[in-house]
Specification:
This protein has a single domain, classed as Vaccinia Virus protein VP39 (Rossmann fold), CATH 3.40.50.150. It is globular. The longest helix is centred in the N-terminal third of the chain and has 39 residues, at about 5-45. Helices cover about 40% and strands about 25% of the residues. By secondary structure, it is an alpha/beta fold. The chain contains 5 helices and 7 strands.
Length: about 230
């Protein structure tokens, strides 16, 4: 079978991204109601100071940023998702979203910020889908201040060998449907990027297929004396 040329491939991927952005909230609605929403709320209770969220998607984290957050910056690389995120921020109206969010288009692998710009970074179901996970984590470590925190909810490769083999077999389907890899060694990647994992809970993503359920939530810190 002939592969599509580059322009045709780009059109196919653009259509796929638009469809994913259009249907994302509906796809994840049952998972949110079954427990993911509560996981977000617990996680983001620890957000404070200058906060960066990568891969903001359609803005599902927005309601859970509290008064301890003094500035909020959200990046999203894909224009269809970015437009939905911007609409959700605008719909919050003056005074409803505190602090007001700054939204911009940027990939996690190339963050347009100076070193040590943020106190907290947030990644919820993002590191499974970035093009280059180690590079994205190095960027997050770079823009965080010494002692800063990375808050995360991520599904990852299971610690159970049988489930891990299932994830390997079914990863093509996960990529097709939800545009991410379900079998990445994300927790190890966080540590390899120079973070210290301070608190982590191994749990399951509710209402997800068995191969996409293994999940970790918690936070990691940038060592105070860290050098890049």
């Amino acid at each position: 079978m002939c592969r599509p040329g580059r322009p045709a491939y780009r059109r196919i991927m653009s259509l796929r991204t638009r469809f994913f952005a259009l249907t994302y909230d509906r796809q994840i609605a049952k998972t949110e109601a079954a427990g993911l929403r509560a996981m977000r709320e617990r996680l983001l209770a620890g957000a404070h100071g200058d906060v960066l969220e990568i891969g903001g998607g359609t803005g599902l984290n927005l309601p859970y940023y509290g008064p301890a957050v003094t500035s909020l910056t959200i990046t999203e690389p894909h224009p269809p998702m970015l437009r939905r995120l911007e609409r959700r921020v605008a719909a919050a109206g003056p005074g409803q979203l505190r602090p007001a969010a700054t939204v911009l288009r940027a990939p996690a692998e190339d963050l347009p910020f100076d070193d040590h710009s943020f106190d907290v970074a947030v990644s919820t179901l993002v590191l499974c889908g970035v093009d280059d996970q180690p590079r994205a984590l190095r960027e997050l470590r770079r823009v965080l201040r010494p002692g800063g925190r990375l808050l995360f909810i991520e599904h990852l490769r299971s610690r159970d060998p049988g489930t891990a083999r299932l994830q390997d077999r079914m990863n093509w389907l996960n990529r097709l449907v939800v545009c991410c890899d379900c079998n990445r060694p994300t927790l190890g990647s966080i540590e390899q990027a120079g973070f210290t994992v301070a608190d982590v809970e191994h749990t399951e993503l509710p209402k997800a297929p068995p191969f996409a359920r293994p999940t970790v939530t918690g936070y990691a810190t940038v060592p105070v004396a860290a050098r890049r």
